[in-house]
Amino acid sequence: MSLLAAETFSLQFDNRRRRRGKKGPSYPRRAYLCYQLTPQNGSTPTRGYFENEKNRHAEICFIDEIESMGLDKTQCYEVTCYLTWSPCPSCAQKLVAFAKAQDHLNLRIFASRLYYHWRRRYKEGLQLLWKSQIPVEVMGLPEFTDCWENFVDHGKPPPFNPSKKLQELGEASRSIKRRLEKIKILGVHVQGYYMGILCDAEA
């Protein structure tokens, strides 16, 4: 299994807000997806990661990889994904279709950052995942720690303090979690509104 470089993890999973006009080196925040597939029979988990390709998002690479494994559909699996960015609307729809076709998989998604969270379609993509029983949450200290321990190459000392870095990521995740909760609540209210209209129409 290939592993992320420590510096790649530090830069790409960084969830701290960038300040406009701040001096210092800039770098693109790319989309990475780390996954762990765990059979419920206690077998060894399978791990891997993908990053966006030119015409394929990391989520699509992940879907294609799992589908190519030929998993035993009589066996249940836990699948945990750690993403640098939450899924776009198109990937959200494809993840829902994938989960429905692979109903022996229990898929959970954790994101370091929310992608275009202020845009309606991106909010609706997240809400679609929740409605389809696919939990989407923001990575906190436990998830960052698990990702660091299982998906990063520890062959040489990193150019930063890992404990301090993980603590910073965990603290920065609090405001992002609050933002995600607002999107969840909005989705529940919208769904309740339309259910109310439907019930009135049928009365």
Automatic annotation (TrEMBL):
EC number: 3.5.4.38
PROSITE patterns in UniProt: CYT_DCMP_DEAMINASES_1, CYT_DCMP_DEAMINASES_2
InterPro entries: APOBEC/CMP_deaminase_Zn-bd, APOBEC3H, APOBEC_Cyt_Deaminase, CMP_dCMP_dom, Cytidine_deaminase-like
Keyword set, alphabetical order: Cytoplasm, Hydrolase, Metal-binding, Zinc
Cofactor: Zn(2+)
Principal EC category: hydrolase
Family indicated by similarity: Belongs to the cytidine and deoxycytidylate deaminase family.
Annotated protein name in UniProt: single-stranded DNA cytosine deaminase
Organism the protein comes from: Cebus imitator (Panamanian white-faced capuchin)
